[in-house]
Every structure is written in structure tokens, then in C-alpha cells.
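Before the break, one more example. Copy the sequence into your notebook; we will annotate it together after we see the structure.
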Amino acid sequence: MVFVGERKCERPRVDIIDYNSEQLSEVQDVEVNQCFEQALSDTSVTWINVNGVHDVGLIETLGEHFGLHPMTLEDLVNTTQRPKVEEFPYYLFIVMKMMEFNSTSHAIDVENVSLILGKNVVLSFLEDDGDVFDSLRERLRKDKGRIRHMKADYLAYSLMDTVVDHYFLAIEQIGDRIEAIDDKILDDPRQSDIQDIHYLKRDVLSLRKAAWPCREVINAIEKGESGVLMASNKVYWRDLYDHSIQVIDMVETYRDILGGMHDTYLSSLSNRMNEVMKTLTIISSIFIPLTFIAGVYGMNFVNMPELRWPLGYHGVLIVMLTIGVCLVIFFRRKRWL
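Here is what the structure looks like once it is written out:
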């Protein structure tokens, strides 16, 4: 196995939550051997969360204990995997993309998430220490909802549902940024706005690349006949599939809006340039006849009758002022000013 991707944490960390309807035990940052000592019985569900997949030895040890296929292990350490689902005799292998809006960089942070769903165990593999599953852990600790009373497949559904829900949060943040930039473009378009539009297009494209395959993954799970899936939980997978469809619809909508914003920016910039050129043209039109008069009396001919008039200078100024005022009145009546 060869790790493919960016190393995002110093050392891997393994957390274990074992629960049933009556009790829950949680241990954090444990040695890999403790995963094997933890009771994996038919009376409880065990969630083993691994943060940091760059440790190939750790992944290989877990794979040997849980009987994971070599191709699965190879995909676990490849963080560039496209979202997919693969069915094996004793487990399901699921790959998703976890996305979260970074308020500091105003960009979407993308992280690969791999799930192994067994009969009574769920293994989750993440690239970094942080994740979006804190709310799910609180539900388990406080016994909220039905999760403590369900099997491992419901836990896998809950993990995937949490990931998809954060797609909505990321889309909402992108929508707020789109509205802000749209207002700026209409009021005062600037060169930086086109860069912001391209950044938003990149974020929407990342969401699209994650959401479209995710729909296929959920649909395959919902229609699958794996032995680790409970038939009674099919309704939850259908609901998750509907959520993925909503995500795709919103992503496509924002994609079209961003395409229109690019055209709006160019139109606003063109209109602004036209207004500037219009103003300059009007000013030029006012000064053209005045420049003509000044040019005529600036010629060095000796026999020009007006040169010796006592009031010639003042008369020319009055004529020039009258012409300028008349042109301004004319432009205002035409609503060009």
C-alpha cells in the first residue's frame, strides 16, 4: 500500500465508541491493539474512528483483523478516490467527500471519508483530526433519537446523513457570498469581483463533484441486498437519497447563477464604461465649437476686422458662453445629461 494525498495531521488517532440501548463506553486516542480487545458482540454496535490514514501500517493491521480485501486497503490510503460503494461478502466499503465551509479562507475544505460497514461494527477513516460528527457523538452520549436502539447500518446511515447535511451548510454559505457579490457587481463592479466569482465557481464545482457520485452511492446502497443492511432501514436510505437530490438541485442552481453573474459583471462594466464615454463625449461636444472660435481668432492674419474692435474680446467671450449654455440646455432636454 502507498499513501496518496496530503498528510494533514502529525500522527493518527483512534477513537472507539461501543454502545447499545442500555449503555455506552467511549475511549479516545487508543492503541490499535485496544480495537481488538474491545468487545465486538452481537449485543452492541462498535464505532471505530481513525483520524489520519497516512499510517499505512495502522491501516494494514486493522485490515488484517477485520478481514478487509487488499483492494479496500489500497483505496483507504488513497484520498483522491471518487465517491463510491463496493459490496463484499461481510462488509460494505463506502467512500464520500466531507465538506465544510472555512470562514477564514472563505473556501470549501474537502476531506476524504471512508466507511467500512460490518455486521456490528462501523470503521470510519478520515484524513484530519477534525470532522463534522460532533453532533452525532452527542446524540449517542445523551441517547437522543433512535440511534442507540438500531444496528450498525443505521450508524453508517447517520454518518453519511451528517456529511450530506453539511453540504447544505456549505451551499448556504456560498449562497450568502453570491448575494453579496451580486449586489457589489450591480452597484460598483471591480476587477476583484471577477476573481471572487471564479473562486465561487471552483467551490461549487467541488460540491458538484462530491454530490453527483454521492447520489449514485446512496442509490446503490438503497437498492443493494447486502447482508449487513437491515430491510427495515430502507426508508432512511431513501430519505438520504432525497437529500442528495436536493443538494444537486441547489448546486446546479448556483452554478447557473454564477454563470449569469459573470455576464452581469461584464454588462455592468460595459455600461459603466459607456456612461463614462457618454460624459466625455458631451463635454467634448460642448467645447468643440468653443475651440473652433478660439482657433479662428488665434490665426496670425493681419487683415482680420474684429482684431481692432474695442469690445471684440468681450463679445467673443459672450458668444462662446452663449453657445456653451445653449448646448447644455439642448443636452438636458434630450436627457443626455
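The domain at 278-333 is CATH 1.20.58.340 (Methane Monooxygenase Hydroxylase; Chain G, domain 1). The chain has two domains: 13-268, 278-333. Try to locate both features in your own notes.
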